[in-house]
Amino acid sequence: MIKFLDLQKINVAHQQEIEERLLQTFRSGWYLLGNEVKTFEQNLKHYLDAEEVIGVANGLDALRLILRGYIEMGVMQPGDEVIVPANTYIASILAISDNGLVPVLIEPDLHTYNVDIDKIEEKITAKTKAVMIVHLYGRVVWSEELLALANKHQLKIIEDNAQAIGAEWNGVKTGNLGDAAGFSFYPGKNLGALGDGGAVSCKDAELGKVIRALANYGSNQKYVNIYKGLNSRLDELHAAALDVKLKYIDAENDRRRAIAKRYIAEINNESIILPEQPETGAEHVWHLFVIRTENREKLQAFLTDNGVQTLIHYPVPPHKQQCYSELNHFIFPITEKIHEEVLSLPISPVMEDEEVTTITKILNQFSC
Ligand SMILES: *Cc1c(COP(=O)(O)O)cnc(C)c1O
User: Fold this and answer.
1) Helix, strand, or coil here: 294?
2) Index of the ligand 1 atom closest to the CA of residue 88
3) Is the distance from the beta carbon of residue 104 to the nearest atom of ligand 1 less than 6 Å?
4) pLDDT (tens digit per residue) in 255-290
């Protein structure tokens, strides 16, 4: 069986270094808001070339805290609108509605699966305060037009960078393109912790300060509470493991790129639509390698029968979920088509060349 993602193998590749750092942290007796988090924040900041980095408990909190920070600063208020792609993972949208803000969904481009920038302006109202872009599957979404549009309408650009750490647009890392970004270190992400973890990066030092306080009960001095905050901190143990793995992220993303390149060159089947290579200047990090086919159930069963595990990202779009009954009446044909047809193939830095060959051969034998 070729696993969709072999997390054990991914982490064991750095076993000795991770174990040493974990043991050191364990023995230090200091488990929160200490040197490991500080070191990781510094190294991630340096890696991104960002102004501010704040470790938080998970990726959803990173996005929630950015929006909450803007609310505390008076940049937006509950009832304001945030534009977001309809085909994102639901966490992007939960971060918006959790703050009493209104998610305004827009369709993606069927070829890149990323938000169609040309469809943003028609959705802007007097209440629109931000655009949340999502570098879905690890593919960068950015353009000069987007920046010009945000400046023209005084919108904040928030990046959901949960799937794209290490990706670049003309030499600038994602997470450092917009005003603020949320990162997830969920174990299956390209930079995965040994449990939950996340981070915020932002350009505005004041926003960084507000978010740091919000994540720690709304306080940046013990027992002095400025905001009605939450408890969303990155643990020392996770930071220690992440700091080790951060050193290898570029090499691991390179390996993902090499696998994606082979899939694109070698899969040759009329009933399978492959992802497009990114435009020049954009570095894709292939968090997921997503193909499309009209007969997904049959293809997935065929792969399972031949020993290849696949997953679907995602089977049901957020606007069709029970929890968003207020959005259920919307019809987004491109989003719905994507959710009906996508299938994610195994891709990871520890996949062997022979596994790629095996999967490719099986796919080339499939007929709908
Ligand atoms: C994983 C993910 C999140 C949420 O991150 P968690 O760490 O699981 O909370 C948010 N947005 C996207 C696009 C994601 O893939």
Assistant:
1) coil
2) 13
3) no
4) 999 999 999 999 999 999 999 999 889 999 999 999
